[in-house]
Amino acid sequence: MQVFLISFGEGRWEVGDFLSSRAIDFPVLLDTNKKCGANFGVWGVPKTFILNHKCEIVFSTQGVTPNYEVLIREKIKPRLNELWKN
Fold first, then answer.
1. Which residues have CB under 8 Å from 49's CB, separation 6+?
2. Which of 54, 61, 82, 86 has the largest CB neighbor count within 10 A?
3. Would you give the end-to-end CA distance of the chain in angstroms?
4. Sign of torsion over alpha carbons 37, 50, 22, 30
5. What is the Cα Rg of the chain in Å?
6. pTM (2 d.p.)
7. What does the buried/exposed string (b/e) look like for 36-52 if buried means 16 or more CB atoms within 10 Å of the residue's CB?
């Protein structure tokens, strides 16, 4: 499984400031002109996607809810089982 962030409309320096204030240890892709985000219907942040092993979107959510972390864990667990079977 690969986890990464896509910065939506922000430049390298803004993203660097954000990352330096948090313990984030995975790749960040810069979408400074918002083209990638537009292709996936991103209109606000954060937008979370979970893709299967065929790179198909199997879950997405906009924003952060009070139980965001629990929700994401619940959605990822079946995908991990799917990966282990293949």
1. 40, 57, 59, 60
2. 61
3. 13
4. negative
5. 14
6. 0.64
7. ebeeeebeebebeeeee
